[in-house]
Design a protein that fits this description.
The complex is a heterodimer of chains A (214) and B (154).
Chain A (H helix, E strand, L loop, with lengths): L2 H17 L4 H4 L21 E8 L6 E8 L1 E5 L2 H7 L3 E13 L4 E6 L15 E6 L5 E6 L11 E4 L4 H4 L4 E6 L14 E2 L2 H12 L8
Parallel strand pairs in A: 3-9, 9-10
Antiparallel strand pairs in A: 1-2, 2-4, 3-4, 4-8, 5-6, 6-7, 7-8
Chain B lengths: L5 E7 L6 E7 L2 E5 L2 H7 L3 E6 L1 E6 L4 E7 L2 E6 L5 E6 L11 E4 H5 L7 E6 L15 E2 L2 H11 L4
Parallel strand pairs in B: 3-10, 10-11
Antiparallel strand pairs in B: 1-2, 2-5, 3-4, 4-9, 6-7, 7-8, 8-9
The chains are: A alpha+beta (214), B mainly beta (154).
Chain lengths: 214, 154
């Protein structure tokens, strides 16, 4: 829809809506494209790896090369994600990220417990959160390899960067920190992990000998 | 139908350098699926309307970004926390609801009674998530019409 058409459309509907006394009569009939419901999981059963994707932030100053990107992703409901991102974090893991352009715009902020809590013995900076300092686009989290060793996929990339590149291939598989999820939104069926599940997992990673085989 | 507004909330960003004072907050918020929201939030944007936002502390760290003529988005340049967006003065003539604040920021400041009231730019929603429950869903064109009307409210 071109600029002029769109403007005319809005103008016409706005006038029509006002004449009808507004209310929901005009607005609660979204067009047929909205009818899609839950994703058909049969379509995408396998966790496909994308060998290489070039993605940029909204203002296009930062350009990233994402290597070996997983198409099954996890949503994080933790308190830190709610606060920083305004809702849950939608991210998927990849094995490496190269900043092709705009390195000077990539801002970093070290995460203290990553929304975990005092039960977790990860030190501050175990993970570093990156965003574009010009447009504020979410970029990625990276795990500090001096603190957490033996992690294959050190990066967790914002789906916002790739939603218009490979969105049709992505599938929500897990939800983390499900016990602290606010009650004003919920998704369809996925595997859910509580705060304790995640903290135990991280504690095992940082100190395998203490895990008592649990 | 509309619930009572929350008179005043004080919220801090993740690094606590920025303090916002939000007044006249509507607990019934909008989820926006547009492409810009995907870029800047990692997923859909959760925004709650309010009448005013005052930056009590850390104004020098508030970074604005204006991807469209009608609004400027704000975030903390130190920790990257999403703060709010503000409709442009020449677009938004009404004294009400000129600001839209991050729901997660206010949730972590203690406001727990939020409810997702509607979903906008629904035709832009990527296929990999879908919110449970029934509510009003608007296309981008329909959203512009709604905003055009609300911006003229007395």
């Amino acid at each position: 829809m071109g600029g002029i058409n769109r403007r005319n459309f809005i103008k016409n509907v706005a006038i029509g809506g006002a004449a009808l006394g507004l209310g929901n009569a005009v607005f609660n009939k979204p067009s047929e494209v909205l009818a899609s419901g839950q994703r058909d999981k049969e379509e995408i059963m396998r966790d496909e790896l994308k060998p290489e994707i070039i993605a940029s932030c909204h203002c296009k100053k930062v350009v990233l090369k994402l290597i070996k990107l997983h198409t099954r992703f996890t949503v994080c409901h933790c308190d830190a994600c709610q606060l920083i991102h305004n809702g849950p974090w939608y991210g998927t893991t990849c094995s490496d990220i190269k900043i092709i352009n705009g390195k000077e715009y990539v801002s970093e902020f070290p995460v203290e417990h990553g929304g975990l809590n005092k039960k977790c013995n990860l030190p501050r900076g175990w993970s570093v959160w990156h965003f574009c300092s010009n447009c504020g686009s979410r970029l990625y989290y990276s795990i500090n390899d001096k603190i957490l060793k033996n992690v294959n996929d050190r990066y967790n990339v914002s789906l916002g960067l790739i939603h218009n590149i490979c969105g049709k291939d992505l599938l929500m598989e897990n939800e983390d920190f499900f016990d602290v999820k606010p009650n004003y939104y919920s998704f369809h069926e996925t595997k859910k992990f509580s705060s304790d599940d995640i903290i135990n997992n991280y504690n095992k990673l940082i100190n395998p000998s203490n895990s008592k085989g649990a | 139908m509309a619930r009572e507004r929350i008179a005043k909330v004080t919220a801090k960003c993740k690094c606590q350098k920025i303090v916002l004072e939000v007044t006249g907050l509507d607990p019934d918020f909008t989820a926006c699926h547009c492409s810009t929201c995907q870029f800047i939030h990692s997923g859909p944007g959760f925004g709650a309307k309010c009448n005013d936002v005052k930056i009590v502390q850390g104004a020098e760290l508030v970074k604005g970004y204006k991807p469209a003529l009608w609004a400027t988005w704000h975030f903390c340049s130190n920790c990257g926390t999403r703060l709010h967006y503000k409709f442009a003065d020449d677009v938004w003539k009404s004294k009400k609801d000129r600001y839209v604040v991050s729901v997660g920021l206010l949730y972590e400041a203690g406001i727990k009674k939020f409810k997702m009231f509607n979903e906008v730019s629904y035709e832009e929603k990527p296929p990999y998530y879908c919110f449970a429950g029934q509510r009003e869903k608007l296309t981008t064109s329909e959203t512009y019409v709604l905003y055009a009307l609300e911006s003229q409210k007395p």
